[in-house]
Amino acid sequence: MTVKLLLAGCGKMGGAMLAGWLDKGFEATAITVVEPNSDTAEDLQQRYGIATITNPEDLDFNAAPNVVIFAVKPQVMDDVAPAYARFAGPGVVYLSIAAGKTIGYFEKMLGAEAAIVRAMPNTPAAVGRGITVCCANGHVANDQISLCGDLLSTVGEVAWVDDEEQIDIVTAVSGGGPAYVFLLAECLGQAGINAGLPEDLAKRLARVTVAGSGELLHRSSEQPETLRQNVTSPGGTTAEALRVLMADDGWQPLLDRAIAAATAKSRELA
Fold this sequence. Notes:
Layout: E1 5-8, H1 12-23, E2 31-34, H2 38-48, E3 51-53, E4 67-70, H3 77-80, E5 93-96, H4 103-110, E6 115-120, E7 130-136, H5 142-153, E8 156-160, H6 166-175, H7 177-195, H8 199-219, H9 224-231, H10 237-245, H11 251-269
Parallel strand pairs: 1-2, 1-4, 2-3, 4-5, 5-6, 7-8
Antiparallel strand pairs: 6-7
Helix pairs in contact: 6-11, 7-8
């Protein structure tokens, strides 16, 4: 059976998923994108050979999709989601990547019996290196869980949790994580400048070092702790820097506070 996908919104994350689906062999003729910007919709149609519409009300009710993917900003979800409630049924699962929008929220919007998967991806999905954590309600069948996992795995790794409250922590750790890594690159470069390096060189050193270290971590089977130790000679310069970074007021307690703040904000927004 051909799986029919209905993608509501095709911004950066929606576009990354669409490209991933097509790259992994999903049929373009089985994908419909709802994109209110007519120029963007036309561009998507010409580039990928998929069906696009600008208004969900124009969807054929009898051509119900297998998966409805919500990839719009959380701020506009109140206006977007209700138009898709008519597809709710045992053969349809709703997959949302909107931050802060709970399963309970979608059950109110789409009906208490709707099959809903709440997912939290992150921006490295744009290069196929993201990670998405998902939580499903009790109406999602096993084959639908597998299907949603397959769709999300086209842009990176996928993990599942049973406790939806953990999604708020996931949002803080991996959802915001890329920003923390980019900030590390910023700060490392600025530290080099402050220490006396030319600005261009300092920023280049920071960018390539962070990117290269991430790739080394990706390829290695070793834990981060082991990789860190491999770089650190006893009594050497790296050990001296780590003495500062691993102090009682160093990175760990700082990140603990940052993750706690982001988690609290995620729950507040929900």
